[in-house]
Hints:
It comes from marine sediment metagenome. This is Thioredoxin domain-containing protein. Keywords: Signal. This protein is an alpha+beta fold. It folds into 2 domains: 2-33, no CATH class; 47-151, Glutaredoxin (3-Layer(aba) Sandwich), CATH 3.40.30. It contains 7 helices and 4 strands. A 4-stranded mixed beta sheet has the order 2-1-3-4, sandwiched between helices. The protein is globular and about 30 Å long. The chain starts with a helix and ends with a helix.
Amino acid sequence: MKNGLRIMSLFVAAAAVLFLVPALSPGEEAQKTKEEPKTETIEWMSYDKTLNDARESQTPILIDFYTKMNCPRCYAMEKKLYTNAKVIKEINAKVFPVRILLEKMTPSEKKLAQKFKYGNECLMVIVSADMKVLFRDNQIVSADKLLKALQEL
């Protein structure tokens, strides 16, 4: 009788392991709900190469004059604005995005910056293909504010 009980308890324990372990571990459904890592980024372009393309296609240009030197505005925009999936999608779809590093501006970029009277400070502008200013902000630009500006293009 003891052997019969022992065999029966081993059988019950084995059945419990077979049925409970898969329920406790993440299955296919749990794995399907995990977010995929974000791989989409803004396709930044150089100003000199973008200008002709913008004129030919009549596509606006988003220009971000930025610095890597201890700038709270630039840091916040890099971490929050330019990683926002909706912002990335809209920028890539609606404008030619250009980032100009203030410390390494080319002569044509310096001339462009002077046109906007940026005062050696960080600045975001959206311009039409014929360089008319459609949006201008030298503060931290929120996702909502930029999305609204992009939707109005």
